[in-house]
Amino acid sequence: MLRTRAIAVAALATTALALSACGSDSLSTGGSTTSAPAGSSAPAPSVDPALAAKLPEKIKSAGTVVIGTDATYQPNEYLDSDGQTVIGMDVDLFDAVMAKFGVKTEWQPSAFDSIILGVQSGKYDIGVSSFTVNAEREQQATMVSYFKAGTQWVTQKGNPKKVDPANACGLNIAVQKGTVQADTDLPARDKACTDAGKPAINALVDGDQAKVTAMVQSGKADAMLVDLPPAIAAVDSTGGTLELLGEQYDSAPYGYVLPKDQTEFGAAIVEALKQLEADGTYQEILAKWKTEGGAISDFAVNPSVG
């Protein structure tokens, strides 16, 4: 929708294939990474003193912002071929945002469903991991919108199980733990099935999106639900063994996750995003990762989600 650990073989294969398509311009020093769009003609973002003045004292003193991220969500955030460096669209964009504040970024891989708790406890200064903005999350944290994506169904090529998203009763459907697909979408569909006296949906849940994708490839799952960018990446990186089923739906903004009391910092991040949009950096980064369709211009702190 974090931890330093070994990456699964399936994830490594997916990463390697993606790198051949996307390339990587990430440079890593210790736990920190800085990235620039490939072939970018725009200058590196310059520090804005007015934004730097609005940094929380902890980040300002350290000169580094510690970021929790689920590095299994290609192309948004995932591990490079070295198995350690976090790369992706979210990484490039947030690195550019923090460059406006004059601080370095330290990306710490972790389980997706532990990131918000990590921000609340102070383990991470911020969470950047394709978090869909919703009312429940806004009750737990301050969120800053920067992108938009919806849910996409993915099946094996040719949809051999004849999966119908409107009637998935009795099927094996894979989802990543802690996502809106796992917590909201699939349970609602399952309830509709059982309320109608039809077989329940068998939810196959894993914390690693690469493993979720592998379930569909192997046939263990009949389909998976995932955000559109990683859905496209899964199709592109699996040798034509998977395909998108239908269109994305329920599009909603992604949000950076900040501590609940950091609305001023959130507003400063909004301003940084506006500057990156104005100078073309925002669009270049999304184009690099083939995610231009998720661009927004109404960056906001705790945007209304209905």
Folded structure, characterized:
The chain is an alpha/beta fold and 306 residues long. Helices cover 36% and strands 24% of the residues. Strand 4 and strand 5 form a beta hairpin. Helix 1 packs across helix 9, helix 4 packs across helix 10 and helix 4 packs antiparallel against helix 11. The N terminus is likely disordered.
What would you say about this model in short?
With 306 residues, the chain is α/β, with parallel strands linked by helices.
> Which range does the strand content fall in?
15-25%
Task: Indicate the radius of gyration in whole angstroms.
Answer: 19 Å
- Report the mean per-residue pLDDT as an integer: 87
Helix content: 25-40%
What attributes characterize this protein structure?
disordered N terminus; 5-stranded mixed beta sheet; alpha/beta; 3-stranded parallel beta sheet; single chain; 13 strands; 11 helices; 306 residues
Blueprint of the fold:
Layout: H1 9-22, E1 27-29, E2 32-34, H2 49-52, H3 57-62, E3 64-69, E4 72-73, E5 77-79, E6 86-87, H4 89-101, E7 104-109, H5 115-121, E8 126-127, H6 135-140, E9 142-156, E10 172-176, H7 180-195, E11 202-206, H8 209-218, E12 223-227, H9 228-237, E13 242-258, H10 263-278, H11 281-288
Parallel strand pairs: 3-7, 3-8, 10-11, 10-12
Antiparallel strand pairs: 1-2, 4-5, 5-6, 9-12, 9-13
